[in-house]
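User: Continuing from earlier, I have the next pair ready.

Assistant: Great, send them over.

User: Here they are, in order.

Assistant: Folding the first of the pair now:
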Amino acid sequence: MFNNNLVLYLENQKSQSMKNQIKIFFLLTFLCTSFLFSQSEVKPPKGYSNDIGNMISMLDNLKKRVERHVRNLDQEGTDYLLDENANSPGAIIFHLAATEAYYQVYTFEGRSFNAEERAKWEMALNLGAEARKQFKNKPIKYYMDIYDEVRAKTKALLKTKDDEWFKKKIGSMTNHWAWFHVMEHQANHMGQLALITKRI
């Protein structure tokens, strides 16, 4: 009789444990799914027109994903060159900032870089052999701070515009297409950074 009761008790405990595990599994699944969907929503932040806000949402999402590949790099990783013609992760982040800075003056002021801006951004914009010599021995934070500063300016400038401005043509492209290009440019280099950082 005692043995039967013990068996029944153990089976009941086992069943209860299984039920708890199932509950935990579904709870974790729900939380993970909710997190993934919340991260994947394109939604205009407060203060922006609809189309510009959607672009900001995508730009910022991509920027976070770019930075995920590099934020923990040490100095060796920041300056790492995949081969003699490659660009380092630090240089690529600088390049992303320079490209975005260029499209700021192009879309908001209708011009190219002036002499002072060229001195600041041209090497990072074009990269190449001289950039490989110059862009080293600085921590990844140095480059990420530059990127942050440029993005903050982009967002402040875009907040002053509306979707009618976004549709306007400037040169051979609309303002919308220009900022789409900035976004796809980030995506291109995100893949490059993913490859490079796996080789470090």
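And the other member of the pair:
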Amino acid sequence: MSQSPSSQNPFAQMQVGRPTGPLVQGYEVIIGFETHAQLTTQSKIFSRASTAFGAEPNTQASAVDFALPGALPVMNKGAVQRAIEFGLAVNAHIAESSVFARKNYFYPDLPKGYQISQFEIPVVQGGTVEFFLGDEKKSVRLVRAHLEEDAGKSLHEDFVGMSGIDLNRAGTPLLEIVTEPDMRSSAEAVAYAKELHKIVTWTGICDCNM
């Protein structure tokens, strides 16, 4: 009995014709990545607060980062420039106009109750990351790379029965890089991650210091 097109698995349809990897305990390995790269701006994505590492808690947070009433975000031009530089490096389409959206969720170190991110129209669309695995050339397609703000940090070590909140990281600019599920082995995934590391450090958009 044949299935109608509407009842078929869309993910399975996307995999038709793609190379398959070796089976692991009877399962095929299919890997996609979502990588957050912290951008090398000196200030946050929507405020002038510093992004320098190592400051005392809550000393690098502005009214915007604290989500105080009436505080409005202002886009950091440098964050957009770095996103575009990445897009050009991976031969992606750069959107002439881009839209931000609210990603609503509750977390103690997210004062606004939502994260400013991108969904419908990300700044970077498509693109590829190419690399060699041994002598074989591989290509991983990118779905998108979009800008968003990081949340703050919950502190647990110095408190008993409660947690502290440090909003120094709140509003730190991130570029979220999303691939198609094109990788078929752990070795391929490692090679992709190393190549992505080369791209973001060579372009200078991220220093990759964890």
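Worth noting for the second one:
Helices lie at 10-15, 63-66, 77-89, 186-203. The first helix runs from residue 10 to 15.
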